[in-house]
Amino acid sequence: MGIAAAFLYMACLGVDEKRTQSEIAQAAGITEMTLRNIYRVMKKQFNPATDLPFKSQITNKQLKNISHDPIL
Question: Rounded distance, CA 62 to CA 72, Å?
Fold first, then answer.
């Protein structure tokens, strides 16, 4: 669940959706430290502003609908 949470956090950064690490970690059932650690490793491989393939294909409204999905 930690990797999915880190990708979600990275995606939020990539589309300027304001979500805190705390919000995402709580929704994923992991600690903020776990999220931060995984995000730091992933950040070395991906730039959230340029490397996310869906950046131009998803709107903030769509992202909000996804982030309120009860599965998260």
Answer: 15
Pairwise CA distance, residues 7 & 26, whole Å: 15
| Domain assignments of the chain as residue spans, ordered by start | 2-67
For residue 65, the Cα-to-chain-centroid distance in whole angstroms is: 14
Question: How far is residue 4's CA from residue 24's CA, in Å, rounded to a whole number?
Answer: 10
Which pTM does this prediction carry? Answer: 0.64
pLDDT > 70? residue 63: no
With a pLDDT cut of 70, the percent of the chain lying above it is: 64
> Which CB contacts under 8 angstroms, 24+ apart, belong to 25-28?
27/67, 27/72, 28/1, 28/2, 28/4, 28/72
How does DSSP classify residue 48? T
Q: Residue 51: helix, strand or coil by DSSP?
A: coil
